[in-house]
Amino acid sequence: MTDICLMFEVHQPLRLNRNFHLDLLAKPSVSKKDLFDLYFDHPLNKHIFDRIARKCYLPSNNIILREIENFRQEKKQFKVSYGISGVFIEQCERWNPTLLESFKQLAQTGCVEFLDETYYHSLASLFGNNRSEFIAQVKMHRNLMKNLFGYAPAVFENTECLYNNAVAKTVADLGYKAIITEGVDRILDWRSPNYVYKAMGSSIPILLRNYRLSDDIGFRFSSTWWNEWPLTAQKYAAWLAATQGQTVTLFIDYETFGEHHWPESGIHEFLKWLPGEVLKWDQLYWRTPSEVVDLHQPVGEINVHEYDTISWADLERDPSAWISNSMQRVSYEFLRGLEPFVKGLGDEFWLRLWRYFQMSDHLYYMSVKGGGPGDVHSYFNPSGNPIDAFVSFSNIISDFEARILQELQKPELAAKWILRKLPTDKGFIFFSEFARPTKVVAHDLFEFSNALHSVQDQSIRYHMERGDFERWLRQVIGDNKLAKKISTIANEELVVESLREALTLVIEARVKQLKAIASRMKT
After folding, report:
1. What is the overall mean pLDDT for the chain?
2. What is the pTM of this model?
3. Are residues 303 and 339 in the same domain?
4. pLDDT tens for residues 287-301?
5. Between 80 and 460, residue with greater pLDDT
6. Which end is more exposed in the chain, N or C (fewer Cβ atoms within 10 Å of the end residue's Cβ)?
7. Is the separation of the CB atoms in 510 and 479 below 8 Å?
8. pLDDT at 523
9. Co-location of 214 and 263 in the same domain
10. What pLDDT digit, counting tens, does each position of 369-394 carry?
11. 162: buried, middle or exposed (CB in 10 Å: 19+, 13-18, 0-12)?
């Protein structure tokens, strides 16, 4: 018996406004509420969304719904799975509610499993060590699925199948029963992707995409040069029947059916006949991912270190589709660097905009790869070339940064910003007199003040002599006023106990002052 697990990725990005110019940079005449319309090309996004809905989403949903109904009363049913981004759902709600209703009809059949993913189809899983932004976006998507379909997804697929051991561990800790990624040859060695595995360092099962069979449909279906063209449902079902293993995971962009391969290619006819042709084979069953991991135990472990992160993109099947060249890396780091500033505002509007900029598509358009992968990047790029994509992104993100910094100049926001909790890698580590790190680390002014009460005398003297306190407060915390007061104390010749007391009094007074200023902020 071999289970066939058919999954579709459904996502459409919000493309940036290519006509945005820097003369608009932080222009006061542009109101906050108008920025969403200023940054994104809504006419273009609506045009593309409407076209693909007409050519792909609606006809494909109708075919799948019909085939599910055709086999509903049979011993062997037809089942599929969808991963739908939150950004796609938003566009459905805005431009095509009928399409959203068709997905709800599919959900009601009981033969469709919806997968969880990042709400914004982002690269947030690659951000930092604690992956707090990734977790936040996953929870957003989970809530969306519950509210929209009354469904709690149990299986996770990361953006573009990005995967490593740390991502798997995070997903397992969030309570998912399985994760899906690419069956990359370098992580399998001699093994087959057609089995259930488990992640190294956690117990979560992994389903591996069979990229050869998936790409036969996704990339080669309408290629007349292909020696297997034309591909029929009967022929493809025979290939599946001849494939050894527990399960064959087919994961395909949904746009394959009518957009990447036009209806004239016969792709819809292929989709129509495939369910029945597969079920003619006694040993083949259509299954959802949850059913597969319930039926089959893992046969081995998959080990993917963070430095060897994999994806389903391009020939390299790694993150290079988004962060390989200098334009992509600069944009990626700029975007990441804005996180503490945006979150320091405590304003959902700015946070939402920043998350739209995280969509992986923006960096994908900046790729300068050649050959087949380069053709694919160019096909999706609305700017026409990677340099124009980079310029558009840079102009808009620079305007966004300028507006964020303007907001942070407001006294109550500046106070809240200074009092914020820092990420793990920005905390102040107290050292002993022999330049050895202690276990005491402060991630905000509250923790810093408390630490000064308990750390050894030698540690305080060591850091004061080096100017470490002043430098951290100025460059990391961002409080020049407090840093200046600490500098004044450093110039005084005080014994350690007097030094400790002077430091704590100044810091506690400053914290009290900042809390009073921050409390004026409207909630």
Report:
1. 93
2. 0.86
3. no
4. 999 999 999 999 999
5. 80
6. C
7. yes
8. 44
9. yes
10. 888 777 787 778 787 799 999 999 99
11. buried
SS3 for 154? coil
Same domain, 6 and 110: yes
| pLDDT, tens digit (0-9, with 9 covering 90-100), for 487-504 | 988 777 777 788 889 999
DSSP 178: E
Q: Say how many residues make up the chain.
A: 523
Residue 305: domain span: 2-12+58-312
**Is 160 annotated in the active site?**
yes
Residue 221 and residue 267 in contact, taking contact as beta carbons nearer than 8 Å: yes
What gap in Å lies between CA 267 and CA 234, rounded to an integer? 13
Helices (H), 118-210: 132-149, 165-173, 185-188
Report the percent of the chain where pLDDT is more than 90: 78
What distance in Å separates the CA atoms of residue 407 and residue 414, rounded to the nearest whole number? 9
Q: Are 160 and 222 in a shared domain?
A: yes
In a domain, 37, yes or no: no
Q: Is the pLDDT of residue 174 over 70?
A: yes
Buried b or exposed e, range 193-227, using 16+ CB within 10 angstroms:
bbbbbbbeebebbbbbbbbebbbbbbbbbbeeeee
Distance CA 494, CA 512 (A): 25
Neighbours of 41 (CB within 10 A): 19
Find, among 62, 64, 66, 56, the residue nearest to 10 by Cα: 56
What pLDDT shows up at residue 521? 58
Direct distance between the N- and C-terminal alpha carbons of the chain, in angstroms, rounded to an integer: 59
Task: Say if residue 171 is in the same domain as residue 218.
Answer: yes
Helix (H) or strand (E) holding 217: helix 211-218
Structure tokens at 522: 């409207």
pLDDT in tens, 180-191: 999 999 999 999
Residue 50, in any domain of the structure: no
- Name the residue type at position 380: F
Last residue of a domain, one of 354, 377, 409: 409
Q: Is pLDDT above 80 for 128?
A: no
Q: Are 359 and 332 in contact (CB under 8 A)?
A: no
What is the pairing mode between strands 178-182 and 247-253? Answer: unpaired
Catalytic option among 67, 133, 160, 401:
160
Domain's final residue, options 312, 339, 357 = 312
Tokens of 158: 């990361």
Do 423 and 403 lie in a common domain? Answer: no
**Into how many domains does the chain fold?**
3
Determine the 3-state secondary structure of 506 from DSSP.
Answer: helix
Q: Supply the Cα-derived Rg of the chain in whole angstroms.
A: 27
